[in-house]
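Pilot study result, target chain (292 residues):
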Amino acid sequence: MFQGLYTALITPFRQGKIDYAAFEKLIQWQIEQGVHGLVPCGTTGESPTLSHEEHVQVVEQCVKLAKGKVKVMAGTGSNATDEAILLTKQAEKSGADGALVITPYYNKPTQEGLYQHFKAIHDATRIPIMVYNVPGRCVVDMSDALTARLAELPRIIGIKDATGNLERPSTLSVALGAKAKKFIQFSGEDTTAVAFNVQGGKGVISVTSNIAPKLCAEVQNLSLAGKTKEAIALQQKLMPLHKIMFCETSPGPVKYAASLLKLCREDVRLPLVPPSKEHKALIAKVVAKILS
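Predicted structure:
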């Protein structure tokens, strides 16, 4: 059901408010450029700073614009289980195709706590769920044994792996056993996208594709078609862009890059701030070189 390039959408702001006109423009452009899916209200979408009302509206608008064209996997995670259930129910009601649920941050739950968190969300909803493991943001790391246990639940259909550890798709496949063929593994790191697919991955949830959706989609098309050599060549071309998108805390750099393309303003919400003057110059140089 889910494979290929999914863009972790930025949330455009203007004078502190969500710029829905820019968001619509961004989504339409993404679809025209050939992405396979969209992920609103994830980390890149600054979900921790969105109100519940804003979160619901962003997902609803994304679903409305994408329906019948590309899949929508709505970010619905929280470090409070009840809040994650609420957001997941609302995404389901909006018509999203799936929910991306991050591991609880700050709380530092045990592996059993993580299991009970995801199981509670699963049991309270009817939407396909992809769990999201990003230890660098959330401190906790989902073990392969935990993920395999969660895969026993019928609507936990995959994982977004942002560990950057290229052992994980293989070690998880071993832990999954017979379920490995159906359980969807997505890379959460642009830099590992091709190598991840070679080891059984089915796609990537990408930050860079906010800026270069056509090129990022082609990497996935080539990779999933078994044209690994061609995919690697294009991936290497994109590598400087992948790297510069994280020269400072995301989504500051990607929003500034989007402003250079006239997609939206560079505005982020506190406690995030735009990139430094020095990093802006580097971002502009890389964007100009790769997209020229």
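One observation from the pilot: The beta strands are 4-8, 13-14, 17-18, 37-39, 71-75, 98-102, 129-133, 156-161, 184-187, 203-206. A full batch analysis is planned for the follow-on phase.
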